[in-house]
Design goal:
By secondary structure, the protein is mostly beta strands. It has one domain: Jelly Rolls (Sandwich), CATH 2.60.120.10. The chain contains 1 helix and 26 strands. The strands form 6 sheets. Strands 1-22-19-24-17-14-13 form a 7-stranded antiparallel sheet, with no helix packed on it. The protein has a 7-stranded antiparallel sheet with strand order 2-3-4-11-6-9-12, with no helix packed on it. Strand 25 and strand 26 form a beta hairpin. The N and C termini lie far apart (49 Å). Bound molecules: manganese (II) ion (MN). Manganese (II) ion binds next to strand 5 and strand 10.
Length: 289
Amino acid sequence: MTSIPRKVKQIIEPQHVIEGADVLLRRSFGPNIENLFDPFLLFDHFAFNNPIECPIVGFPTHPHRGIETVTYMLEGNVRHRDSLGNMGIIGPGDVQWMTSGRGIMHEEMPKRGSSGLIDGFQLWVNLPAAQKMSQPRYQEITADTIPTVKNEDVTVRVVAGEYAGTKGPVTEIAAQPLYMDVALQPGREFELTIPESHSTVAYLFEGTGLFGLSNGEQGVSIEAVHLAIFDDGDHVRVRAAEESRVRFMLMAGAPFKEPIVPYGPFVMNTREEIQRALADLRNGTFVQN
Ligand code: MN
């Protein structure tokens, strides 16, 4: 079996956008008909660390259909409440993996933690056509139940997928995702086998590192904050710069290779399905408990 290291094929600089009720975000990519990062649809970083951004309003009640939204908090909290009667707080280190299926209405309201900071990510993962109208489902994972692999080189929190024999608690997701929070000590290296067909992305939010190393090539030097898209291959290698710890979210997933039609908080396969979602909202038939 030949071994093919994944090289970096694109580096994205996150753009500031305003979403919800005046929430300032760093968006690396959003839903697009070209579906370039299939099965991933969106990656947002919310960090409200400037006092002038006070008060934080958040994301008042809004619908989703046809996708999964994944919230991962570093600092601060997100209070959420939905049409199924769920409510709770996503705190530092917690994950909420929400499968909207045919439809939920929810609100997501960020709150400052004791540090005064709010820092976290939201990833949107597509659903295949056959699951877009499925029953909504939540996987709420608290920080203390996310396994961490730690040695002198690296600390990896495994949300989904497997690292060094440790499996993440999020399971039964159509995209067969891998989602990890990786912190590398200065000059140290991280390597992971990833199925060849998976789309692979890293969001670097601390430090400087070499991404996409291969035998004889040192990879591309990238500094925070940037998103790196990897090319095809069967494994990923990253090395922290000599003087810098690096930390990044690593995500990979199996592409569905289906046409998509995004419209705000909905991502379906056809325009007719979007029109159906809007009609369901108008008619009060969007949410079916
Ligand atoms: Mn939402």
